[in-house]
Design brief:
The complex is a heterodimer of chains A (932) and B (65). The radius of gyration of chain A is 44 Å and the shape is elongated. In chain A, 64% of the residues lie in helices and 5% in strands. Chain A is built from 32 helices and nine strands. Chain A is mainly alpha-helical. Chain B has one domain. Helices cover 75% and strands 6% of the residues of chain B. Chain B contains three helices and two strands. Chain B has a two-stranded antiparallel ribbon with strand order 1-2. The longest helix of chain B has 22 residues. Chain B is elongated and about 45 Å long. The chains are: A mainly alpha (932), B mainly alpha (65). Chains A and B meet through helix 4, helix 10, helix 11 and helix 13 of A and helix 1, helix 2, strand 2 and helix 3 of B.
């Protein structure tokens, strides 16, 4: 079923599907329901990084180098970890300045220099064209191979095929058409190419699916799993060295490290990566997902590379089949037609995705940063007099797309045969790595100057050309090969592959080392040695301090001059069209709370800045600068003035930071005050409750004392028995009064900290014996059964004997008060617990309500429901107990009795460490001491 | 702002960890002719370490500030 027409029809059906997806996404975007404003689509679109080079070339490299292909994917993973710091900044800057491409970004940073933008564009185009040709080569090779099915024949030399029958040409042309249709629909380049991004995300899914499918097939269908493939490879003497491949290879680890660095830079500065990551980004927050989803994608697509590579070499011994084609040829050799077709489509998707995004990015650069500044400066063209330039702009962009693809095709025809896929890709990586010093330096170092960036780029690019491009041309037969072997004019020190005699490194490591030294060195040295212009200084501060500025304190502060709103409108209309110009004006007016065109707009600095930013979004920063400067009267600011504005701005920011901090502190303080106030109010309420409780408690015994004494005073005839009873009551009530007053006094002492504490060794066993003895009468009266569990001997604790007795008495009398009225039972247990003694007093009463366990130890809190029950006590006893126990370094708490009913009050007191010998002091404890 | 800075620092630390895991001294420890579950140790190590690094990045990146 793999006849030519089937393959061609499938390819066109696939491209048609892409058209449909892109079309649908564009429709959705027009309707305001963006398909790509979603972190998953964003992460998938980043996977445009995986091109045909990944799809076919990784296996090719793995077949000869083992893990050598992995740094190209591990590097980006490491870089992406830095994205939170680096990429967020680039994203923010690009949004604020309406950056349209990488060239625009660098040019804009260094004072909107048109020259710099042009240089970046030239380097990008020269560096990337081989990479595009690589994609065309991959598609045309895979097409040729599939057509030979079931035979497996490597494609002949390309030169043998006439141009018009060359698949690669038709691939190039159809891709140009696709890119023109969806890449240049809107003029406004800072806007998102929604359709394109949706199509790219879809392509990423297709290539992953195809690669994983063939990986699973080879690993589990052809062989018996990972272990089987590796075991067979280990048995093969040719393949065994690949299993520990970092040994023995010259500069193995160095080349690994440099490849990692190279790909770290590539993921940032490949024009297509910059396009999808920065220009097409709809929301900074999407980074959160992309930061791990995209590395995960790379991990997934690389998982099966090694099994396929080893499987291929085992399957086709002797090297008759190019390892770059294993992905396709293994399914073909196994007669899996459908899978082979899927692989072909996967490779097609990998190639087309890259070509589409790359040409859009490059065409934007060529138009905005290379041609427009030149055309606008050429007075003879009279572009300034034309009222509508939108057609011209779109024409240039479309022409550029076609031109770039044809250049790629040309390179493929002329030089594509000399290299394997991977080598071509790495040459391009090394070219874009040259942007790193200027771009990264530009966002973190204010001192970088335009001259420095130019010098760095020129030096790096020169070394790149000499050490990578020149050998490529020589090997393709365009230059004498002797140039590589003997060096130019026979000077061996200048041999391009062993520059200055540096040998023993592979070509890429060698080139990267020298070009980075030259690039970084020139950038830093020239930047440090020369002055910065006012425009550069201002852009530098806008870029580096992008997070430290309030949005409104943007570029507008740096402009002085006079302008008319009509001129500005005409200017915008010429480049964007009248409708877009109206829209930009309306948007600005709305922000100012005005109704345009009914109300006139004041053409002040902010407005001019707004217009320039809008214009920059269409034609790039440097062209926009030229155009605005031509339409308005400007006063140039001196460097001193710019410095002053920058300083002022940073001071304002500093003040506002300080102010923010102060207000935060103030807020915290007022919260604290509010809390303290609440607490005071609560205490006040408790005090009122307390007073009323205490007075009530005081009045009850007083009332009965008065009543009985009045009876006795008035009526002398009361018989003796009666008198004795009344006097008994009076005495008991007086006792109760005394107790209450004692407690209140105690509380006052404890609270004020004036209580006197004596320190002696106390035997808790004796304390319990004594208190129980003292209370025995009460137990008998209430018919309470007492269960004592005391060890024969316990170590003493240090403390105030009277106070400890007070605690014990209080707990016992509470237990009596609350235990079951008919069958009261109280258990007292003493036990050693670590370095403390623990006393338990349990009753079989109603227990403590859940949730009350803590608060019953608070002041004035009474157990039970105070609303319905009559309070039984002053609510001071437990509070005083807690105070005493805690003073002794112990702890008091309550829990449910083990048998589920009643409450168990427990407290611990630490055992005295040194003096165990001290004679326990027995003291008589008076009736006055506690709450009984 | 504060949480942002912390997140950035954690991310930079992860990048440094990755540079350590995938470079000379550590990588050499696993560059031995042995197998782990039938897979050469070096390959197994790289993919496992890579997966772990991604998991950590996911954890840090998705954390609410």
């Amino acid at each position: 079923m793999l006849q030519g027409w089937v393959v061609v029809a499938t390819s066109f059906a696939y491209l048609g599907l892409l058209f449909a997806i892109a079309y649908y996404a564009d429709r959705r975007a027009d309707a305001g329901r963006s398909l790509i404003a979603n972190p998953y689509i964003y992460a998938l679109s980043l996977a445009v990084y995986a091109t045909a080079w990944t799809f076919y070339g990784s296996v090719g490299r793995a077949a000869s180098d083992g893990v050598g292909f992995l740094p190209i994917y591990i590097g980006p993973t490491l870089m992406i970890a830095l994205w939170w710091v680096v990429m967020r900044k680039i994203l923010r800057i690009s949004k604020e300045h309406r950056i349209t491409s990488l060239a625009d970004f660098i040019a804009s940073r260094y004072g909107k220099s048109a020259l710099l933008g042009g240089v970046v564009t030239v380097i990008a185009v020269i560096g990337i064209v081989p990479y595009i040709s690589l994609q065309l080569k991959a598609v045309s090779n895979s097409f040729t191979i599939v057509l030979q099915y079931p035979a497996i024949v490597m494609p002949a030399k390309v030169g043998a095929v006439p141009v018009l029958q060359d698949t690669a040409l038709w691939v190039a042309l159809s891709l140009a058409l696709f890119t023109i249709l969806f890449g240049t629909r809107h003029l406004y380049s800072a806007e998102h190419h929604e359709g394109m991004v949706a199509a790219i995300a879809f392509e990423s899914l297709v290539k992953l699916l195809a690669f994983v499918a063939v990986g699973v097939f080879v690993t589990y269908g052809v062989y018996g799993g990972f272990g089987d493939v590796f075991a067979r490879a280990a048995a093969d003497p040719e393949l065994r060295p690949l299993l520990t491949p970092l040994e023995g290879v010259a500069g193995g680890y160095a080349s690994w490290a440099w490849l990692t660095i190279l790909s770290m830079l590539a993921i940032m500065f490949l024009p297509r990566q910059f396009q999808v990551t920065v220009i097409e980004n709809t929301d900074e927050k999407h980074l959160n997902k992309a930061i791990w989803l995209f590395p995960l994608y790379m991990l997934a697509i690389n998982l099966f590379v090694l099994p396929i590579a080893f499987g291929g070499r085992l399957h086709f011994p002797g090297g008759v089949v190019d390892a770059d084609t294993f992905v396709l040829t293994i399914p073909m050799a196994e007669r899996q037609e459908l899978l082979a077709l899927l692989v072909f489509v996967g490779g097609l998707s990998a190639a087309t995705g890259m070509v589409i995004v790359e040409t859009i990015a490059l065409s934007t650069m060529v138009c905005n940063d290379f041609l427009m500044p030149v055309l606008l400066r050429m007075k003879s063209l009279r572009l300034n007099e034309r009222t509508d330039l939108t057609g011209l702009l779109l024409g240039i962009r479309r022409g550029a797309i076609l031109l770039i693809l044809l250049l790629g095709y040309l390179y493929f025809r002329l030089a594509g045969e000399a290299y394997a896929l991977v080598s071509i890709g790495l040459i391009s990586f090394a070219a874009v790595a040259q942007f790193a010093p200027a771009a990264l330096g530009g966002i973190f170092w204010k001192g970088g100057t335009r001259r420095g960036a130019l010098a760095g780029l020129a030096a790096g690019f020169a070394i790149w050309s000499y050490t990578l491009l020149l050998p490529a041309l020589a090997r393709s037969g365009w230059l004498p090969i002797g140039l590589l072997e003997q060096g130019p004019f026979g000077v061996a020190l200048l041999r391009p592959l062993q520059l200055f005699g540096l040998s023993g490194l592979d070509q890429i490591t060698h080139a990267m080392l020298w070009s980075m030294i030259a690039n970084l060195g020139a950038y830093v040295l020239v930047s440090l040695s020369g002055p910065q212009s006012a425009e550069e200084h201002r852009q530098a501060s806008l870029f580096v301090d992008v997070f430290r500025r309030s949005p409104e304190a943007g570029g507008a502060r740096f402009w002085r001059g006079t302008a008319s709103a009509t001129d500005l409108h005409n200017l915008l209309a010429r480049f964007l069209g009248v409708a877009a110009a109206d829209e930009a004006f309306r948007e600005y007016a709305q922000r100012k709370g005005l109704l345009w065109p009914a109300q006139a707009l004041d053409a002040d600095a902010e407005f001019v800045h707004h217009v320039e930013t809008q214009l920059a979004g269409a034609i790039g920063a440097s062209s926009a600068r030229i155009m605005v400067a031509s339409a308005v009267k400007e006063e140039a600011l001196t460097l001193e003035e710019v410095r002053k504005i920058v300083d002022e701005a940073s001071q304002v920011v500093m003040y506002s930071h300080r102010l923010e901090q102060k207000s935060r502190e103030l807020e915290a303080a007022s919260t604290e005050l509010r809390a303290a106030n609440e607490q005071l109010k609560e205490l006040d309420r408790l005090k009122d409750d307390f007073l009323s409780t205490v007075t009530h408690e005081l009045r009850t015994p007083l009332t009965s004392i008065r009543a009985f004494s009045e009876i006795l005073a008035r009526d002398p005839k009361v018989d003796l028995e009666q008198r004795r009873r009344f006097l008994g009551i009076i005495a008991k009530e007086t006792e109760r009064l005394t107790r209450l007053i004692n407690q209140v006094l105690d509380l006052a002492k404890v609270e004020s900290g004036r209580a006197d504490w004596s320190e002696t060794a106390v035997d808790l066993r004796e304390v319990i014996d004594d208190t129980v003895g003292a209370m025995s009468q009460v137990f008998k009266e209430r018919n309470v059964r007492l269960e004592l569990q005391l060890p024969a001997k316990v170590p003493p604790v240090t403390g105030d004997l009277d106070r400890i007795i007070q605690v014990m008495l209080n707990l016992l009398s509470n237990a009596v008060k609350f235990c079951d009225p008919q069958h009261g039972r109280i258990g007292v247990t003493l036990a050693e617990q670590g370095s403390a003694l623990r006393v338990e007093v349990c009753d079989n009463g109603p227990g403590v309500l859940p949730g009350d366990e803590k608060i019953i130890f608070d002041k004035f809190v009474q157990a039970g429901d105070t609303l319905t029950d009559k309070p039984q006590g002053s609510g001071l006893g437990l509070y005083i107990c807690r105070h005493i126990v805690e003073h002794h370094g112990g702890r008091i708490w309550v829990q449910r009795a083990p048998d589920g009913e009643g409450a168990c009050f427990m407290f611990t007191l630490p055992i005295e460490r040194s003096a165990v010998e001290t004679k326990t002091k027995r003291r008589r404890h008076g009736e006055e001491s506690a709450d009984r | 702002m504060h949480g942002f800075e912390k997140k950035g620092q954690r991310m930079v630390a992860l990048c440094m960890l990755g540079c350590l895991l995938f470079n000379f001294p550590v990588l050499a420890l696993f560059n031995v002719p042995a197998t782990f579950l039938g897979v050469p140790v070096l390959y197994a190590y790289i993919f496992v370490a890579w997966g772990l690094l991604i998991a950590l990045m996911a954890r840090v990146a998705e954390k609410r500030d």
